[in-house]
Amino acid sequence: MGESQGRTQKDLAAAADISYPTLNAWMNRTRDTSRVDPERLRAMVEVFRRWGVRTTPREFFASAGRPVPGSSGDKCEAQLLKSYRQLSESRQRALVKNAEAMLQPSRIS
Fold it and tell me: Is the pLDDT of residue 69 over 80?
């Protein structure tokens, strides 16, 4: 574990600029981790890296039960495809026609 051996939650809180009671509540799951600011989680990842702990933001977010923040394009695309597949064939054609119309330059004069 490198430099992280012997470190405490208090050390992590101080190094990541998080109050100890807040970090302790997250660790003991007495406070909902879904509201943890992603930048706070990234700060903890950086502290662990400085301490020699090999971790990635993805691993760290997963351990907190959180999706890695970032582009929501993949989620939107998946939701759109899921919705499209639930439509009847005629509605699928109408949706494609509407999407194609949205791609056309505006002709407002």
Answer: no
CB neighbourhood size of 29 (10 A): 10
Provide the whole-model pTM: 0.52
Q: What is the DSSP letter of 52?
A: T
The Cα 48–Cα 7 span in angstroms is 10
Q: Which CATH architecture does the domain made up of 2-63 adopt?
A: Orthogonal Bundle (1.10)
Which secondary-structure segment (H or E) carries 54? none
Q: Break the chain into its structural domains and give their ranges.
A: 2-63, 73-103
Residues 6+ apart with CB under 8 A from 62: 68
